[in-house]
Amino acid sequence: DNLLRRAACQEAQAFGNQLIPSSMPLKKATVFLNPAACKGKARNLFEKNAAPILHLSGLDVTVVKTDYEGQAKKLLELMENTDLIIIAGGDGTVQEVITGLLRRADEAVFSKIPIGFIPLGKTCTLSHTLYPESTNQVQHITNATLAILKGETVPLDVLQIKGEKEQPVFAVTGLRWGSYRDAGVKVSKYWYLGPLKTKAAHFFSTFKEWPQKHEAVLRYLGPTERPPEEPEEKPSRPPLYVRIYRRLRLYWASRPKEIPQDVAPEDWEELKLSTIELSIATQNKQLDLTRTEDFMDICIEAETVSKGQFVNRGSQKMRDPHVCPEGSQCIQASRCILQLPEGTEGSFGIDNEEYEAMPVEVKLLPRKLRFFCDPRMRAQMLHAAVQ
């Protein structure tokens, strides 16, 4: 582990030793660290493996430690200008930071700030997309921190999930509602059963009424065509005389105003569903940089599942929560409204965080945020797209 840390620090030192003009300020990096992640070990993991790399790289680093759940959302509202945002924690910390970021009044400006993710939590779904798999935790953290310095980014989709009264919540992975999610939350209760705890949690949940049904009405719109990429560099401003000439030409061009055409009504489709589990997921897990359409995947699983299948599939769902089993109905949509019957109890899992189940509107914000990724993973994605 010490050899890995030393090698990563030497690589970071090369970035720190680069000369910059005296007129150029240092790049500011704001780190949102959740010390409670990974059963309270996150602070130690960050200070040992990530902090030295960031300081050696020549960044002006500010570390903001969160003291309680939901604090990151409030801190993001007060955050001043920064060049990089770094999230050090797990899925819950990512979800809090991006929700706070996109709730800002000036989110159009702040959503262009690139985001780094240092995986320190118990569940770090995004790390599978952004960084190569590694069995060594130190290597995984140092790889993620070095990826921030290398500067390669990929655009990720975001889901905007809005209830009737609440402010919207934003997610980069997706939303789950159903029996597998409910059983998965209770796995840690059976810690004393060791490797059998997952099967035990799903087995005991079958003692409730069976088959377990979750009924709702789903209205949705189909995929949307992806607009062309905006150029990153803005064209240079034309000379003053050209701008004056253009303004005068626009002023004197007296064209009759066109009558606005009626906008075509949106083609909503409606579906009554009864399912054991419903999931709405982004495409971030299998990122395709050359995709021509933007959509989220809605998976409606059949309710006709035997108790044995439920227990076996539950273990699979713990490894890959948004897997869509055979016999499920899969829908591609850019926007959907989930209407639940009155008196519906239970919870949604939004990026592995628990929220009360209620009627919601889910809207896809395609390529909304840019996350730093390992250059090898980006090259792999482009290579896969070409093939």
TrEMBL record:
<protein>
    <recommendedName>
        <fullName>Acylglycerol kinase, mitochondrial</fullName>
        <ecNumber>2.7.1.107</ecNumber>
        <ecNumber>2.7.1.138</ecNumber>
        <ecNumber>2.7.1.94</ecNumber>
    </recommendedName>
</protein>
<dbReference type="GO" id="GO:0005524">
    <property type="term" value="F:ATP binding"/>
</dbReference>
<dbReference type="GO" id="GO:0005758">
    <property type="term" value="C:mitochondrial intermembrane space"/>
</dbReference>
<keyword id="KW-0547">Nucleotide-binding</keyword>
<dbReference type="InterPro" id="IPR001206">
    <property type="entry name" value="Diacylglycerol_kinase_cat_dom"/>
</dbReference>
<keyword id="KW-0418">Kinase</keyword>
<dbReference type="GO" id="GO:0046486">
    <property type="term" value="P:glycerolipid metabolic process"/>
</dbReference>
<keyword id="KW-0808">Transferase</keyword>
<keyword id="KW-0443">Lipid metabolism</keyword>
<keyword id="KW-0067">ATP-binding</keyword>
<dbReference type="InterPro" id="IPR045579">
    <property type="entry name" value="AGK_C"/>
</dbReference>
<keyword id="KW-0472">Membrane</keyword>
<keyword id="KW-0496">Mitochondrion</keyword>
<comment type="similarity">
    <text>Belongs to the AGK family.</text>
</comment>
<dbReference type="GO" id="GO:0005743">
    <property type="term" value="C:mitochondrial inner membrane"/>
</dbReference>
<dbReference type="InterPro" id="IPR017438">
    <property type="entry name" value="ATP-NAD_kinase_N"/>
</dbReference>
<dbReference type="GO" id="GO:0047620">
    <property type="term" value="F:acylglycerol kinase activity"/>
</dbReference>
<dbReference type="GO" id="GO:0001729">
    <property type="term" value="F:ceramide kinase activity"/>
</dbReference>
<dbReference type="Pfam" id="PF19712">
    <property type="entry name" value="AGK_C"/>
</dbReference>
<keyword id="KW-0999">Mitochondrion inner membrane</keyword>
<feature type="domain" description="DAGKc">
    <location>
        <begin position="24"/>
        <end position="165"/>
    </location>
</feature>
<dbReference type="InterPro" id="IPR050187">
    <property type="entry name" value="Lipid_Phosphate_FormReg"/>
</dbReference>
<dbReference type="InterPro" id="IPR016064">
    <property type="entry name" value="NAD/diacylglycerol_kinase_sf"/>
</dbReference>
<comment type="pathway">
    <text>Lipid metabolism; glycerolipid metabolism.</text>
</comment>
<dbReference type="GO" id="GO:0046512">
    <property type="term" value="P:sphingosine biosynthetic process"/>
</dbReference>
<comment type="pathway">
    <text>Glycerolipid metabolism.</text>
</comment>
<dbReference type="GO" id="GO:0046513">
    <property type="term" value="P:ceramide biosynthetic process"/>
</dbReference>
<dbReference type="Pfam" id="PF00781">
    <property type="entry name" value="DAGK_cat"/>
</dbReference>
<dbReference type="GO" id="GO:0004143">
    <property type="term" value="F:ATP-dependent diacylglycerol kinase activity"/>
</dbReference>
